[in-house]
Design a protein that fits this description.
With about 375 residues, the protein is of the alpha+beta class. It has 2 domains: about 1-165, no CATH class; about 175-360, no CATH class. Helices cover about 45% and strands about 20% of the residues. The chain has a 7-stranded antiparallel sheet. Strands 12-11-8-9-10-13 form a 6-stranded mixed sheet, sandwiched between helices.
């Protein structure tokens, strides 16, 4: 399943309808959760099909539910049970988890039109019991559309996430493999001698975010000025996330397009962020997990392989002052895949430094340089 995200431009009338339907879905979620909690207290077993059937009866209790497309209401029930299953899985894995909480006003943000209740005609998205909404389709949709999720962001913007079922499209083999060592000083270094700049988007916007947070805290709760300040802060975070995702998508696409096998360290990020607050923030800002996740799903669709190797010993006996430390680690990571040996450098020749801007502009492959001089081993 592939997802496309497109911006929506609903009129004030349509926005009011969407907001009302979100609140109705929130009410339904809380009401079904209440029924679940009640059944457990009474020792009754309750299944997903039971709460599904309950929706019909609740339409009599709250006739406003009829304003929402039936499939959207069914997906609220599905979301509730998915949350329950996720908590159960965490509990089985030894995690301490509490109970599901009721959703407060404004916390429900999606309407899920699964399989039906939608169609796209030109630059319009037509939703059952909502109406026609202008949509900006900035790229061609390939495959059969299976569902549309309408989402309201904290900034007040609306988006349509179009879910598509399409066939895998393997790329032509390149006959090449690469090892990748991620880091904080540089986002990554690969075994072909490239060193990608860490864009540090969070650090660069931290001062502005602090100012906006202070402005928000000074506003009176419930006032229009507070809402304006909240939206400004939400837009700043939204821009930060968009910049980071754009960088990660384009960098992962470069490696998937140009290598058959991509070797990375099998990092346990959750354990690493416990080291200290400052280091943890830098690790989370780098978004290594997201990068490896994007690499993996794009590689699968393209007929490539992402191989995770044990990180132990990849930087052994390498000084932090060694300018080729990360490059040597990347070579060792590649060697552990067993697809031929990368040779270790003997000269301290500079690596090819590539800026985040070059990644975003798609100039990574055009910037060529031989890897540091090596001796045969």
């Amino acid at each position: 399943m592939l997802s496309y995200k497109f911006r929506l431009y609903p009129s004030k009338t349509i926005q009011a309808k969407l907001q009302e339907q979100l609140e109705l879905c929130r009410w339904l979620y809380n009401r079904l959760l209440e029924e679940l909690n009640k059944a457990r207290e009474e020792g009754r077993k309750i299944k997903q099909t039971d709460t599904q059937a309950l929706i019909v009866k609740l339409k009599e209790e709250k006739p406003e539910l009829k304003k929402v497309y039936s499939k959207v209401l069914q997906m609220v029930n599905y979301q509730l049970w998915s949350n329950i299953k996720a908590l159960s899985k965490l509990k089985k894995n030894g995690k301490r988890v509490g109970k599901l909480r009721f959703k407060g006003r404004g916390w429900f943000k999606t309407l899920n039109f699964n399989q039906s209740g939608f169609r796209i005609e030109g630059n319009k998205l037509i939703l059952s019991k909502v109406g026609s909404i202008p949509i900006k389709i900035h790229r061609e949709i390939e495959g059969e559309i299976k569902g549309v999720i309408v989402k309201r962001e904290k900034s007040g913007k609306w988006f349509a996430i179009v879910q598509v079922e399409d066939e895998l499209k393997p790329l032509q083999p390149t006959g090449k493999a690469v090892g990748i060592d991620v880091g904080i000083r540089h986002f990554l270094t690969d075994s072909d001698g490239r060193q990608i700049e860490n864009p540090k988007y969070y650090e660069r916007t931290l001062n502005r975010i602090k100012i906006l947070q202070r402005n928000l805290s000074r506003k009176q709760k419930g006032s229009k000025n507070r809402e304006k300040a909240r939206i400004k802060l939400a837009k700043a975070y939204e821009k930060l996330v968009n910049q980071r995702n754009d960088f990660l998508h384009k960098l992962s696409r470069f490696y998937v397009n140009n290598y058959d096998v991509i070797a990375v360290e099998d990092l346990h990020i959750q354990n690493m962020v416990r080291i200290g607050r400052t280091l943890a923030q830098r690790i989370l800002d780098a978004s290594w997990s997201k990068f490896i996740q994007l690499l993996s799903y794009k590689a699968e669709r393209a007929g490539r392989r992402v191989v995770k190797v044990n990180p132990k010993g990849t930087s052994e006996d390498l000084s932090l002052d060694n300018p080729l430390r990360d490059y040597i680690s990347a070579c060792r990571i590649k060697n552990r895949v067993g697809l031929g040996q990368s040779r270790m450098p003997v000269e301290r020749r500079p690596l090819l430094l590539i800026t985040a801007k070059a990644v975003i502009e798609g100039q990574v492959f055009s910037m060529k340089q031989e890897a540091p001089s090596v001796r045969a081993e």
